Amino acid sequence: MPGQKLYPRATVKKIVKAHSNCNVSKNVDVMIFLDYVLFMQTLVKEAAIEAKQGGERGITARSVKKVTADSLAKFRG
Amino acid sequence: MARESNRNATATTTPARPNASGSVAERSAVTSRPSIHTPSGLSASGRKPTGVPTPGPGPGPGPALTPHARAAFRTIESRRHAAVLTPHHRARQRRQSAMRGDVARDRERETPRNVLLSLGKVLARTTQVITTSSSSPEEGNSRASANQGQRGDDEAEEDDEDDVDDELPKRPRLSLPIDEEDEEDDADLQPHRSAGLEDDDTNYNDLTVRSIELPRREQPGGTSRFSLGSMGRMSDFYLNNANDLDDVGIDSGFFPPTVPLYDDGDNNTGDISAYERLDSDAALGRRDTIGGRESDFGIIEVPVMDVDEGTFVIAPQVQDSPTRPLPLEEEDDYEAPEPFFYPAGGDDNDDTDDDGNLDKSPDDPRGGVVARSTAEHGQKRKRNVKVSKHGVEYPSLPPAVVKRLAQTFAKTSGVKGKISPDALKAIMQASDWFFEQLGDDLQAYAKHAHRKTIDESDVLTLMKRQRQTGSSATPFSLAQRHLPRELLQELRMAPPPPAPSRRRRKPSSDEAEDAEEVT
């Protein structure tokens, strides 16, 4: 994290632009990425809980998939 | 038996009537009743006992009766009631007196029943009368005949009387017109009203319930909008698992289906329903947000099918990511086995994607976008180009970034070890969906504000609605916690024009912020 940049800003901007079919104002992508970080936090946390409940070690694809819907629903605007 | 009783009645009444000869009476008794009627009607005015048979045609005192006859009938009825109500010995006494003394009174008492019997003979078939009103009328008849025949014998009388006494309380119920009415009522009402229904309920309780619910269950399937849409969406989640590669592409072309390494368990639950859903999904083509919202209701029925209900409930939320035809085509390209680690195979993916897209679906805007995007960001080395529902190509986040994020959060949530590539892929897909959803929401907010540009306020609104920011967490605090310093600076420098208090700032960082903003 320290040396490299956290995320490709242009990519985020492009993604949002493509999905929303709107222009994205200048520094919004930071906020968007912040939101994404929060989402990732939620997702990974839930996946970890799910994995623990399922008796898996580490986060597996199964656990992630299981909690994806939940997390997405939580981040519904 | 009924005939016998009738004959007895007529035979006994004949001496009382001077105008009717016995042979005629007998004939008439068997064949037609008006012959009985008229003499009895005539004699009813004079005598009580003969007046009694006249109510025969009607269940109660008939309309043809004279007031005298009615009075007589009433008295007989009251007597009968008394016989019913009084204790046994009184009934027996009266019985005995009737036996010994006058046959006429005995007849009086019995005549209503006889009349009723004759009535039943006329109204209903004789066999039925005999069979239905089995016990008491027969016995009554036998008793009547016995009374007439065995008047002298005490023992026989005693026995008979005992029998009669035992029967007495029961008799009026069966012989009285009320009872018949009841029976008629039963016959009439039971099929019509509650009886039949109750029967149905008791017998087909489950069936009725099912018949009520079945249409409900079928409707979503028939309309195939709500539940199926959501299911189709869910099938994405489950079918990304390698075992059905074909299905992945329908909804989500994001991820190149790769080697089926994992997830045997999920498919067990998702498989059967998933196939249906995908079919329906393909038929639907694209789901709209309305369908997604409505699927809340459709989902209620869903849990019948699958074990994983908890996940299904939230399915509609995910629905927004549209099924588009284009990813399908990409899918075809993706069918080729690829290395699933993006950094390594990313370039290859890009090439295949671009080729496939350009070849198979020459979309003008997309081509332009491709050119523009490539021109703008030539330095992007790994890019999986997908097409949004607006026909705009977009890359997905570099997996390295996602992985780093995920790993940090995994570490904080206490999971040791690396994130497996499969899990990373799932996370990548989730983040793709997340961005899709986020883009939709932001677009909605911007459009609502009549803007064509997504503003920071939109994102703030979104985060508020996501309940990420609230009283406990301000956007800025969140940013401080999660974003690096440079980005924070960007964030701060961004909106000086809107307002100094564009969001609730953390008080501690205010001064530094101001200083930076001033500079």
Automatic annotation (TrEMBL), chain A:
What are the residue boundaries of the Transcription factor CBF/NF-Y/archaeal histone domain, all occurrences included? Answer: 8-66
Keyword terms of this UniProt record: Centromere, Chromosome, Kinetochore, Nucleus
Instruction: State the signal peptide span.
Output: none
Major localization class:
nucleus
Q: Which Gene3D superfamilies match?
A: Histone, subunit A
One GO term under biological process is: chromosome segregation
GO terms for CC? kinetochore; nucleoplasm
Q: What CDD domains is this protein classified in?
A: HFD_CENP-W (cd13732)
Q: Where in the cell is it found?
A: Chromosome, Centromere, Kinetochore; Nucleus
Quote one Gene Ontology molecular function term: protein heterodimerization activity
Tell me any Pfam family this protein matches.
CBFD_NFYB_HMF
Entry's family note: Belongs to the CENP-W/WIP1 family.
UniProt-recorded name of the protein: Transcription factor CBF/NF-Y/archaeal histone domain-containing protein
The scientific name of the source species is Diplogelasinospora grovesii
TrEMBL record, chain B:
Q: Where is the composition biased (Low complexity)?
A: 7-20
Provide this UniProt record's keywords sorted from A to Z.
Answer: Chromosome, Nucleus
- Which ranges are annotated Basic residues under compositional bias? 87-97, 379-389
Annotated Polar residues bias: 29-43, 125-150, 468-477
Cross-referenced CDD domains: HFD_CENP-T
State where composition is biased (Pro residues).
52-64
Where is this chain compositionally biased, Acidic residues type? 154-166, 178-188, 347-356, 510-519
Name all CENP-T/Histone H4 histone fold domain ranges: 390-495
* Any one annotated GO CC term: FANCM-MHF complex
Q: Name one GO molecular function term.
A: chromatin binding
Where does this protein reside within or beyond the cell? Chromosome; Nucleus
Q: Which GO terms describe its biological process?
A: replication fork processing; resolution of meiotic recombination intermediates
InterPro entries, alphabetically?
A: CENP-T/H4_C, Histone-fold
Q: Where is the composition biased (Basic and acidic residues)?
A: 102-112, 357-366
Q: Where is this region: Disordered?
A: 1-205, 336-390, 466-519
Superkingdom, taxonomy of origin: Eukaryota
Report the PANTHER family cross-referenced here: CENP-T_HISTONE H4 HISTONE FOLD DOMAIN-CONTAINING PROTEIN (PTHR22980:SF5), CORTISTATIN (PTHR22980)
What is the designated name of this protein? Centromere protein T
Organism, by scientific name, is Diplogelasinospora grovesii
